[in-house]
Specification:
15% strand, seven-stranded mixed β-sheet, elongated, 3 domains, Aspartate Aminotransferase, domain 1, 19 helices, Spore Coat Polysaccharide Biosynthesis Protein SpsA, Chain A, alpha/beta
Amino acid sequence: MNINLMHDSLTNKEITAVLDCLNSGQYTQGKIVEDFEAQFSKWNGSKYAVMVNSGSSANLLMIQILKKKYNLNDRDEVLVPAVTWPTTIYPIIQNNLSPLVCDVDDTFNISVESMERMITKNTKALFLVHLLGQPANLREIKIFCKKHGLIIIEDSCESMGAKYNGLKVGNFGVMSSFSLYFGHHMTTIEGGIITTDNFEIYELLKSARSHGWVRNSSRSEKYKNEFVDTNFVFDMLGYNLRSTNLNAAIGLVQLKKLNGFIKIRKKNHHDFLTQISKIPGLKIQKIDLKETSSFSLAILFDTKEKRDYMLKELPKRGIECRLIVAGNLLRQPVFKTSNKKLKADLCSKADEIHDFGLYLPNNQFIRHKEIQYMVDNINDLLNQFQKNENKGLDLSIILPTFNERKNIKILIPKIMEFFSNKDVNFEIIVVDDNSPDGTQEEVNFFKTKFKNIKLINRKRKEGIGAALNEGYNSASGKLIMSSDTDLSFKVEEMGTLYDKINQGYDLVVGSRYAKGGFYEKKNIRTLSKGAISYVGNKLWALMFHLPVSDFSANFRVIRKDVWDKINTTEKNNFLLFEMIFKTSLISKKITEIPVSFRDRIYGHSKLKLYIEAPKAVSKLLKYWFKWKLLRLR
């Protein structure tokens, strides 16, 4: 079963209407647009309507006319909710006004309490959004606006046909926008429309829609003595935001079906609420089933991880879903740049919607069978998620760092994507030796995005062995993997390590010297380093007869229960050999896979061979004698 967010509602009737329009030769804005405007305003209970090419264009026109009609000054303030589409806020900024961003309430619409906190003496208007088919709290909002002398304009783009006390939205402000986009309550494919009861606003909207001309407006009388043809007189700034007769022809057919469409959507929403309420731990948008026109079916989960899991898994089962509108707009990159920072309340409810929310499809083609399928799959996936949580972590990935900011910025997203796609329950533990380059700040940024990242900040720089020891000892996964963070190894080969150890091994080492392995030697430094590494590892292999050819690469995976038994003590690079050596004393299930090793792109190696090589020789002899003694026993 496939349940999509948008469903084609066009039939032969709409196609015939378009063909009739094409045959008439009248394609651009004309009588059919005027007919549609008249029919829509009648349907909505408004005096006038102005059709444009999108709901976003409708918002742009309304803000321009708001400023002109009510003589707003630059930097005057307009209250807006944090949860809406960006083109509710963009026109405010584009017209040199200042948005005051407020939190939302349980209806997902603007909160009166938040507006009370944000309003100032410079606040002149409220851009009132009715989100996802649910009218805002109009009783309290009207009292608030009357108290503070605020002008109301409405964004009803997602709530066509919704009502408050029996009156349709779009009739509570001086003007209101509606969207006629393909996925909305009714469609003209692309399109928008503005309603108003104010004749002056109506004429200004029409002029601004068409270049700012006075044509077909009462203002043309002012210029008839000055201009021969007032059809080409322009007395205000404007745009070309017109729609076409073709779009309006579709709209006239769709409008006749709109009440039926909304009735089905409301029935679906009632069915959905009845079913979804049986699943514990979910929050639902607070709606009034009598008043809503139900744009979609919105849910809040109790954790971000559950929401993200649903976004990933529901489409695999044929259920399209998405984030709620644009989430908290304050967290969108466009509003984080210095020249677009917004005055805003602490928007905790908007954050909750941003982090925990998604919405499911609702349209006039969905019936009980589809509703039941969506609810059953949500319930099943929540149970599956809980089982995954209960079974514990499959894998811990240890990343030791010192001054690896640029590399970790690339590596962590790659690991997250790769192992998430493998459906592995994993954690990443970054063990940082107090890097001064901002490595920890980079990791902390990722921690805000992903629950499964941990950071260990070591105040002393004792070496990679000590860092790995601390990371391995902090691991919760059944398997523990470690890798350098300099991008020398491929993330895909981490997957090969993971697959190999799950074939029954206790320790799997990534080897640059196994058949099929690769060690990049692109200059004198890497050539000499590679030669010393090759000779040293060959020597170790000959001396200890172990089933690996690369003892010094930090690219391996070990079972946690084995790690817990071997009691490593080395604090420098020699821990990598110690791990293999001590594992070999208790298990024969050790193997290697060939891997590719490339020189780092960013930063420089912390390994100083002239210091570590003599230490390694000394340690090597110590372990060799120990190994010999054990064999003699």
